[in-house]
Write a structure and sequence with these properties.
By secondary structure, the chain is of the alpha/beta class. The protein has eight helices and seven strands, in the order βαβαβαβαβαβαααβ. The protein is globular.
């Protein structure tokens, strides 16, 4: 379905980003990975799916490096057809105790990076298909783009901002073949969330399974985690012909969290 297209997924060396990159690669898209940590492992995973894969280590808090990454992707594959803005960080503290530098970092990586990547991807997307345009911009927001939680002021503000950016991007391109939508997951059992589970189990002296159930029970009525594979399947759906007129939605995959 996506053979000949190129997808750039930020923060894609593990977790949700890698899950989405794999799902798009399974549909034939070439992939540009981005992120920290192990690089060769994720590259091998994508290459094994029979598509081309490249990597750029842009620091998503730095606009100049984002610009270099977008130029790199265009040089490697011609243009970015599918942009998945997934990179994100978290810091937890009450507002009066929230370190200013942490606020700035969360805003830069969780919100501003999506703006910069989007503004740089749009011209080639709009020029595609003989000027009719074709492109998919998918922003990984969060259920925290729809509702709040205590001690997550920067994350909640950034994710609400990302949902707003999604709507404006969709509206500005509504008469073209370029769509923009947001995915809003609840709890996803990524390595980052597993650390929270482990910490909860250790501090409470309970099993890992019990800690998982505690975490889910506080917010997620389904009592089950969304998986990176689930999120990847939704991203593929947005890229399919069925997604041609889905524009500006914030699609929550949160087990009923926001329905309460």
């Amino acid at each position: 379905m996506l053979t000949g297209k190129t997808a750039l997924v930020t923060g894609s060396t593990s977790g949700i980003g890698l899950g989405i990159a794999k799902a798009l690669a399974e549909q034939g898209a070439n992939i540009v990975l981005n992120g920290f940590g192990d690089v060769e492992g994720p590259k091998a995973v994508i290459a094994a799916l029979g598509v081309k894969v490249a990597y750029h280590g842009a620091d998503m808090s730095k606009p100049g490096e984002i610009e270099q990454m977008m130029k790199f992707a265009a040089a490697e594959f011609g243009r970015v057809d599918i942009l998945v803005n997934n990179a994100g960080i978290q810091h937890v503290a009450r507002i009066e105790n929230f370190p200013v530098e942490k606020w700035d970092a969360v805003m830069a990586i969780n919100l501003s990076s999506a703006f910069h990547a989007t503004r740089l991807a749009l011209p080639a997307m709009l020029a595609a298909d003989g000027g009719k345009g074709w492109g998919r911009i998918i922003n990984l927001a969060s259920v925290h783009g729809l509702v709040g939680s205590a001690e997550k002021s920067a994350y909640v503000a950034a994710k609400h901002g990302l949902v707003g950016l999604t709507k404006v991007t969709a509206l500005e391109n509504a008469t073209t073949g370029v769509t923009c939508n947001a995915i809003c997951p609840g709890w996803v059992l990524t390595p980052l969330v597993q650390k929270q589970v482990d910490a909860r189990a250790g501090s409470a002296g309970i099993s890992n399974q019990a800690a998982q159930q505690q975490l889910l029970g506080e917010k997620e009525p389904s009592m089950q985690f969304t998986t990176p594979e689930d999120l990847g399947a939704l991203a593929v759906f947005f890229c399919s012909p069925a997604g041609n007129n889905i524009r500006g939605v914030a699609w929550n995959m949160d087990g009923g969290w926001a329905a309460q």
